[in-house]
């Protein structure tokens, strides 16, 4: 029986209501899920990613601006200015992101009416582009339709097609047409090229040399003129050195800007293309310290992207100052000693090859470099003999150092069990097959046998004693006129031991481009014996100074450094700023020897100065202070390609020492390469420089002590070296 019609309608209505309620629940649940996801997403963006997005906004709105903050200054150990900044008037231009080239040209023409600008930097390409810009229609017509079609038919990107077309237009600009550019046009061009040489929102230096007071005033009073939009008058800085000491380094100028080879490196660190950067030595090594912090501004733009307001976010800071361990008075006095001796040597006999002389003095207990002297003979612009600073040669030029390294050889012998304390060896000329006789200077007669102890071997500079140490390390026995085989491992043993003193490895000096010297290989013949007396591998004067410092400092090798403090910029211009960082002494290693063994070598070096057979007795026996050291002579061959004396036999001389003997304050190394070509008449200039340098140190030290202060002092030298000159 079928249900009544009324009942069927009621059931259908209930079913419909049930379906509607289910659908509404699904809809509300979906909405709830969507809102939950939205809330979670908003929370994630705001809480988790909020700082990242804020930084991203800051990167687009907050722009570092070069406000010519002064670069950090460099002072000597006594607070004397070595490198500073001189303020100069300057005129800049800053383009906005929406600035058009036509607007720049208007500004350039107006600015040309107010200032004088040299056009000596304007290139042919600049003139061609400028002519095309002034005569666009006629210049473009120089290219025929056929030529345009040929370029368009090339299978290259559209950008390259346009470049090819532009290049063709330039080629068709004649010299006569370029000559039609007036002097006024070229002045406008000179200004315009500076305006377009950088990025938007980055001030470009239009003129910072020779800006007269009148020019500065004329531009300043019209800064609100719409025709000079983007132009500003500022105080710029020129880097000025009060010393010609090369290790102070150099910087670029705003005109040269960042070197192309390091452009990406500096741009990634928020530099501008026309920023000054250090290009050598201390200026380069401490670039991050010396470079000031630019001001940061926020640009507020309208709907069209035009900047309507610039708000300061962070004020700029001047760069930090460096205080050196070098005393400029001591440096200057030691330079005079070396320079005078070098000129004296050059005026003497057999001196055609001598041209350099070096002296390094450091504190063996702290590693502070007290003086770095390098002098090189050359010619001035008139062809006359001149002496130039070559201080960087103390750590970039290497030479055979001769017997100065015998202290390292003896200590290596002790540590390798090749010799014992106070052991006596027989000094006798050695003859190996197919090689010249090898002997000590004081014992040249074959089969002449002289008993000699380790102390006397240092004092008299016995080559043979060192030869026999090397033979023992190599496990080889000497037999008259027989061949000699040395395993490569023996060279490694000697060199690894020498490296403990700083010989043949980087010293760690806080200057770039330090050399390690030349390693002479692993010849199977008697070259190991040459290595033992400093006539195979080469070392720098700084390595030699670190080596003698290690012996003076009871075996502890200290890292040398020329910067002892980093300070905040001066607050009043009269006193050094607060100390930010003190460069603490850094011990690199201790040599593998006992204290007794080190003291034995120290005694031998003391005898070099005061012993009856000491090789430096004549220069140091009457010194008013106690000192110790070692002299060195190396037989070498001059090598300089295309030089008329290439391959000539010559002599290097060197000297290492320290004082006072009981508690060393200074360690010093002197090197004069190719001092003579006459082995029978070798000058003692190395010993004489060493004595004069030590005397000068103690003389200056014993001056009436002044109370310590942070007062900035005038330079010791009258030298003035201006950036870019």
From TrEMBL:
It is found in: Cell membrane; Membrane. Residues 68-311 form the Penicillin-binding protein dimerisation domain. It holds the Pfam family PBP_dimer. Coiled coil: none annotated. It is a single-pass membrane protein. Residues 358-691 form the Penicillin-binding protein transpeptidase domain. The chain crosses the membrane at residues 21-44. The keyword Methyltransferase does not apply. The keyword Ubl conjugation does not apply. It comes from the Bacteria. Keywords: Cell membrane, Cell shape, Cell wall biogenesis/degradation, Membrane, Peptidoglycan synthesis, Transmembrane, Transmembrane helix. InterPro entries: Beta-lactam/transpept, Beta-lactam/transpept-like, PBP_dimer, PBP_dimer_sf, PCN-bd_Tpept. Its main location: membrane. Belongs to the transpeptidase family. PANTHER family: PEPTIDOGLYCAN D,D-TRANSPEPTIDASE, PEPTIDOGLYCAN D,D-TRANSPEPTIDASE MRDA. This is Penicillin-binding protein. It comes from Planococcus faecalis.
